[in-house]
Amino acid sequence: MPRFSVALAAVGLLGLTACSPEYAQKRSAVKHGQLIYAKECSQCHGVSGEGAGSASLGLGTPAPDLVGLSARNDGVFPREFVRRFILGLLETDDPEAAMPQFAKVGLPHVYPQGGADGEVLEADFEDLLDYLASIQE
Ligand code: HEC
Q1: CA-based nearest residue to 135, from 66, 73, 83, 64
Q2: CA 103 to ligand 1 centroid distance, Å
Q3: Architecture of domain 25-134
Q4: 136 Cα–ligand 1 center, Å
Q5: How far apart are the CA of 92 and the centre of ligand 1, in A?
Q6: Which of 44, 62, 99, 128 pairs as cysteine with 52 (C-beta 3.0–4.6 A)?
């Protein structure tokens, strides 16, 4: 096969992979996670996860950036740590810390009427984690 068609075949294959349902599903999970982030986290952690959003400026501890989670963990996204931190399952030295315990409060800005719990919230938190993993620098 001439080299050109090999390259074309490779491009075709790439295209196929890019459009696979799995890829599309992952992309929509990240998009949904981004929406949740914008509503529940960005006011403190910054629009793009850069930290110190406007709502955190008056806090004792400014909210840290969330794009450097992997960098601060030897290049590996600390998914379990982040999950537990968000849910409020980690022991904290400071019970008055400003970071909400989302297992207790749910996602009040995503579901202002309440009513979402259990599996819905679990899926939402997975999407949020996918989004956070995708913004690591
Ligand atoms: C009211 C402000 C506020 C909101 C809203 C908030 N956070 Fe935080 N967050 C903080 C503060 C302040 C800290 C650091 C102090 C601490 O350890 O509690 C923190 C710490 C964290 C950490 C630990 C980072 C590290 O490097 O140790 C993670 C992860 C995190 N937040 C994720 C989130 C996510 C995801 C959301 C949205 C679902 C969110 N936070 C919403 C204020 C906030």
Answers
A1: 66
A2: 13
A3: Orthogonal Bundle (1.10)
A4: 15
A5: 12
A6: 62
CA distances from 9 to 24, 114, 122 (A): 22, 50, 40
Q: What does the pLDDT look like over 48-73, one tens digit per residue?
A: 999 988 777 777 788 899 999 999 99
| DSSP class of 2 | -
Where are the domains positioned within the chain? 25-134
* CB 99 near ligand 1, within 6 Å: yes
Tokens of 5: 């068609």
> What is the Cα 111 distance to its own chain's centre?
18
First to last CA, the chain: 40
Judge if the beta carbon of residue 85 lies within 6 A of ligand 1: yes
Q: For the segment 3-48, what is each residue's pLDDT rounded down to a tens digit?
A: 656 555 655 555 555 668 888 888 899 999 999 999 999 999 999 9
Distance from C-alpha of 104 to C-alpha of 109, rounded to nearest angstrom = 14
Pocket test for ligand 1, best of 99, 104, 124 (most atoms within 8 A of CB): 99
**Tokens describing residue 30:** 């990240």
